[in-house]
């Protein structure tokens, strides 16, 4: 997933779309908006971005899970099988992005990149509703995909790369 | 100069205040697990060295603590799970990369062994209780069972030594495997928790022992373990100083932050330095109550787990 921080206006539409699509309980969410002001007055810079699970290549949550409930698909998407999760919280402790939470039903829940929609050939709910079209989703292994082209032509960053997780949500800057 | 003035972070009412998801049962369990590992390690070691008669406190009297400690610890662990009905999923797989999986399996073996170990000393340790309960008279097979355990005690002891070491180290590795929590993420936590567990085990033996000679020996052992523990803590702090920004920030919780009094006051001074001093004074021939030192070591060990678990969860990469 690629998110253009220069186009994001922080409207939270992605958050609401995710809550609706995935039936996220009230008071919880799988994605969120972060607003950062940096610089020295009067030269200030405002950055808005939508954050979520980074579906890391080297996912610490998958490594720490004692039952194998947290697992990586061959496509790189990290999922949790609710019926295998014991709610120990090891994955929550291991995530540098704090992208996971305990569902009121006990198991651990997080962004799935709307895996059920991808299987039908649709885009993740957050991407499909974004009013500024600042979010892009696609196959990074395919050099001709829109996301690969964006990362080739634009400057980008990832979150907490020093955590060594090799995250798969990229922010254009 | 580029300066970050403000980050909104997140404002998710039901998630953010609850990210510190490991509560007191985890700290309590880490203490009880370490204590049981320490006691069983010394018991098995002294039994195999043929010192059962000489040091009955280490081998026999303390045998009642590990089964209780491990059972309570296991209950505490399950109590802190949020999807409790699925706990059995732990035992459908072994995940070599997950410390918790290691711990779950080791506990599954050590806990029954600790019960067997206790039971093999039952009629020796508690002849009066047996007179009242008359268990052996009521259930004939218990006599054969106890005899079987007595005959095979050596094998239990051989199994316990590596298993208790894994259990002791695992209580630390459980925390240090999380790179997202910089305070925990250092390799010294495993040996540190093992040393602390052995030290609390030695302290428990001092408390239950009835012979001066045994108290004296375990005072010496405990003193050595405390010195190693202090050295490991010094290494841990040095490691944070030499670490990355997130580790420097994490260390500030312990050095000059909210947990300084708890860590240096209660854990280092009250739980390590004062008992070490008392044990040293006793060692050079003065009469001091070693029981006080032993109690302080146990209390310090407990507070140490609480400090590490609570403080570790406040440290993170983002927000």
How would you describe this protein?
The complex is a heterodimer of chains A (173) and B (319). Chain A has six helices and ten strands, in the order E-H-E-E-H-E-E-H-E-E-H-H-E-H-E-E. Chain A has 173 residues and is an alpha+beta fold. In chain A, strand 4 (70-72) and strand 5 (78-80) form a beta hairpin. Chain A has helices spanning 13-21, 60-64, 90-94, 115-118, 125-129, 146-153; strands at residues 2-4, 32-40, 43-51, 70-72, 78-80, 101-102, 108-109, 135-136, 156-157, 170-172. The mean pLDDT of chain A is 91. Chain A has a single domain, classed as Alpha-Beta Plaits. Chain B is mainly alpha-helical and 319 residues long. Chain B has one domain: Formate dehydrogenase/DMSO reductase domain (Formate dehydrogenase/DMSO reductase fold, Up-down Bundle), CATH 1.20.1630.10. Chain B has helices spanning 24-48, 56-59, 65-80, 99-120, 122-125, 127-133, 135-138, 141-151, 153-176, 189-208, 212-241, 245-254, 260-283, 290-312; one strand at residues 4-7. The longest helix of chain B is centred in the last third of the chain and has 30 residues, at 212-241. Strand 2 of chain A pairs antiparallel with strand 1 (4-7) of chain B, so a sheet runs across the interface.
């Amino acid at each position: 997933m690629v998110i253009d921080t220069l186009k994001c206006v922080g409207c939270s539409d992605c958050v609401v779309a995710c809550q609706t699509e995935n039936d996220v309980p009230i008071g919880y969410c799988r994605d969120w908006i972060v607003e950062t002001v940096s610089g020295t007055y009067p030269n200030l810079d405002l950055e808005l971005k939508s954050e979520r699970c980074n579906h890391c290549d080297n996912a610490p949550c998958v490594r720490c899970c004692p039952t194998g409930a947290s697992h990586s698909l061959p496509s790189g998407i990290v999922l949790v099988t609710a019926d295998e999760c014991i709610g120990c919280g090891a994955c929550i402790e291991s995530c540098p992005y704090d992208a996971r939470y305990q569902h009121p039903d006990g198991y651990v829940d997080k962004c799935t990149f709307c895996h059920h929609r991808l299987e039908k050939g649709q885009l993740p709910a957050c991407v499909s509703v974004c009013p500024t079209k600042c979010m892009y989703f696609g196959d990074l292994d395919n050099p001709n995909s829109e996301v690969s082209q964006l990362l080739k032509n634009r400057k980008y960053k990832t979150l907490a790369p020093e955590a060594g997780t090799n995250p798969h949500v990229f922010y254009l800057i | 100069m580029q300066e970050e003035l403000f980050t909104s972070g997140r404002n998710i009412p039901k998630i953010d205040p609850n990210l510190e998801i490991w509560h007191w049962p985890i700290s309590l369990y880490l203490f009880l697990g370490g204590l049981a590992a320490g006691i069983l390690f010394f018991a098995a070691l002294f039994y195999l060295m043929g010192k059962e008669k000489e040091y009955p406190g280490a081998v026999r009297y303390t045998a009642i603590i590990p089964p209780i400690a491990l059972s309570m610890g296991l209950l505490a662990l399950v109590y802190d799970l949020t999807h409790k009905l699925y706990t059995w999923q732990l035992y459908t797989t072994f995940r070599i990369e997950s410390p918790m999986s290691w711990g779950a399996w080791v506990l599954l073996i050590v806990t029954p062994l600790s019960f067997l170990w206790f039971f093999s000393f039952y009629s020796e340790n508690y002849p009066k209780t047996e007179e009242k309960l008359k268990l052996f008279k009521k259930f004939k097979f218990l006599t054969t069972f106890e005899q079987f355990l007595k005959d095979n005690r050596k094998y239990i002891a051989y199994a316990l030594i590596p298993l208790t070491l894994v259990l002791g180290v695992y209580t630390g590795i459980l925390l240090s495997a999380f790179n997202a929590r910089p305070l925990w993420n250092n390799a010294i936590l495993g040996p540190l928790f093992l040393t602390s567990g052995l030290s609390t085990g030695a302290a428990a033996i001092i408390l239950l022992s009835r012979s001066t000679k045994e108290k004296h020996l375990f005072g010496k052992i405990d003193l050595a373990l405390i010195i190693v523990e202090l050295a490991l803590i010094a290494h841990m702090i040095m490691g944070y100083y030499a670490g990355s920004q997130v580790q420097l920030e994490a260390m500030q919780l312990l050095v000059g932050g909210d947990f300084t009094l708890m860590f240096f006051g209660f854990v280092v001074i009250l739980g390590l330095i004062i008992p070490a001093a008392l044990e040293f004074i006793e060692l050079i021939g003065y009469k001091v109550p070693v029981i006080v030192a032993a109690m302080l070591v146990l209390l310090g060990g407990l507070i140490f787990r609480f400090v590490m678990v609570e403080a570790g969860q406040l440290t993170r990469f983002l927000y």
